[in-house]
Amino acid sequence: MEFIGKKYKMVSSENFDDFMKAIGVGLITRKAANAVTPSVELRQDGDCYVLVTSSTFKTTEVKFKPGEEIDEERADGAKVKSVYTFEGNTLKQVQKSPDGMEVTYIREFGPEEMKAVMTAKNVTCTRVYKVQ
């Protein structure tokens, strides 16, 4: 997996505000999140992985073992459960909130860019990141 350890910086974002509304993120947090350009890095730590999302607004680190459910705190502070799986160069995340809402994140890593497609309640957001 040649994308492990590479840092990707966001270059475009479509429908992010509507996506955040769909998952219940408040107005002030949405405004702050829309104003930043995050970077994403996937690291390996033994048989686990660490997904780091960093920006001037907030940095989050999620440590996971593929296929195992973990407790996670979203960037907006919401407590959720997630399962991460790899399919080739794609990292799929299925996230469930206590109210039963399911959100999917598909991150497709390439040699020069990473494309993230996030879906909740029939709202889809696409964000493209380039290698830094």
TrEMBL record:
<comment type="similarity">
    <text>Belongs to the calycin superfamily. Fatty-acid binding protein (FABP) family.</text>
</comment>
<dbReference type="InterPro" id="IPR000463">
    <property type="entry name" value="Fatty_acid-bd"/>
</dbReference>
<dbReference type="GO" id="GO:0005504">
    <property type="term" value="F:fatty acid binding"/>
</dbReference>
<dbReference type="InterPro" id="IPR031259">
    <property type="entry name" value="ILBP"/>
</dbReference>
<feature type="domain" description="Cytosolic fatty-acid binding proteins">
    <location>
        <begin position="6"/>
        <end position="23"/>
    </location>
</feature>
<protein>
    <recommendedName>
        <fullName>Fatty acid-binding protein, muscle</fullName>
    </recommendedName>
</protein>
<keyword id="KW-0446">Lipid-binding</keyword>
<comment type="function">
    <text>Binds fatty acids in a 1:1 molar ratio.</text>
</comment>
<dbReference type="InterPro" id="IPR000566">
    <property type="entry name" value="Lipocln_cytosolic_FA-bd_dom"/>
</dbReference>
<dbReference type="Pfam" id="PF00061">
    <property type="entry name" value="Lipocalin"/>
</dbReference>
